[in-house]
Every structure is written in C-alpha cells, then in structure tokens.
Write a structure and sequence with these properties.
With 171 residues, this protein is mainly β. It has a single domain, classed as Porin (Beta Barrel). It is built from one helix and eight strands; from the N terminus they run H-E-E-E-E-E-E-E-E. Strands 1-2-3-4-5-6-7-8 form an eight-stranded antiparallel barrel. A hairpin with a 4-residue loop joins strand 3 and strand 4. The longest helix has 23 residues. It is elongated and about 45 Å long. The protein starts with a helix and ends with a strand.
C-alpha cells in the first residue's frame, strides 16, 4: 500500500510541475502575413441605384502597403473599365489566422468619377471593407478577396455593395 501511495505522490508531483510549466508559457500567436502587394482582378457590383446602374462587372487594381510594426495596412482599389470608375483608399486592421492568411476590416472613402455609377456608387461616401489575403507558400503571389460597402454610395441614398477578387505580386 505504501508503494502505491508513493507512486501516486510522484505522479502528482510530475502533473503539478507540468501544469506549472504550461501556465508559464505564453500562448502561441500566428505571425502576420507580412508583405505589401499590388494586384489585379475583377469586381462585381451587387446593388444598383433607382435607374438600375452600378451592378455591373469592373476591372480592379488593388494594392496593400503593410506597416510592419503594427497590424495596420494602407490599401487602395481602383475600379476601372466598367460603366463608371472609382478609387477607394482604406486603412485596415489586419488579423493573422496563420502564417499565410490575414483577415481584415478597413474603413475609408469612395471617390467616384465619371457620370455613371461604378460598383461602389456614384457619389463620395464612407466605406467599410472586410476581406482576406492569402499569401501562396513558396512564391511571391497573393490571392485577395474583399467586399466594399459604400454607405450612401448612390445619389438616391442607397448603399453600394461590391465584391472583388484577384491575384497580386508581393514587393
């Protein structure tokens, strides 16, 4: 009986030491997918104004400048070759899911030009931009996707919504 008690107390000591060691460890955190990029892809407007404009397909040029010391990026998207064009600069908060993937949410402004609505509307408006960046392992390519919600983006007061996706090159 003494032998079982001695074994249990030894086992309890090992478990206690392991628990203390684990409690002193800092939690593992994924590193942000570092890197700035410029890329191209397609945008699709999901909403339209009272005239049925703004829900077309557009070519998009997208860029990200990553501020290395902070989980913040400066982003820009140019909507071209559709019915209307626009530039959307944003500042985003980036959250790493793993070593290759960031999810983010950004805020900025939509700056349309031309007479016809773009996928992000036809008037200057505040935008919210959630998205994801996936950096392909072993290459300098990144796959990006996001949505832009241009609040009051249409002159009739509606919210313009578009989704974009494409491929970029890191620099």
């Amino acid at each position: 009986m003494l032998r079982i008690s001695s074994n249990l107390s030894g086992l309890a000591g090992v478990v206690a030491a392991g628990a203390i060691a684990l409690s002193l460890q800092s939690p593992a955190q994924a590193q942000a997918a570092f890197g700035s990029y410029v890329g191209a892809g397609a945008a699709v407007g999901l909403s339209d104004d009272d005239n049925g404009d703004g829900d077309g397909v557009s070519f998009v040029i997208s860029g990200r400048y990553n501020i290395l010391e902070l989980p913040i990026s400066i982003r820009g998207q140019a909507f071209l070759l559709g019915d209307g064009s626009a530039f959307v600069p944003t500042v985003s908060y980036d959250y790493p899911l793993n070593f290759q993937t960031n999810v983010y949410v950004g805020a900025g402004i939509s700056l349309p030009s031309g007479g016809e609505p773009s996928p992000v509307g036809d008037q200057v408006s505040f935008v919210i931009q959630p998205g994801v960046d996936y950096f392909l392992p072993g290459s300098n390519l990144v796959v990006f996707g996001n949505a832009v919600f241009a609040l009051n983006g249409f002159s009739d007061g509606g919210t313009a919504t578009s989704v974009q996706g494409g491929v970029g090159v890191q620099f």
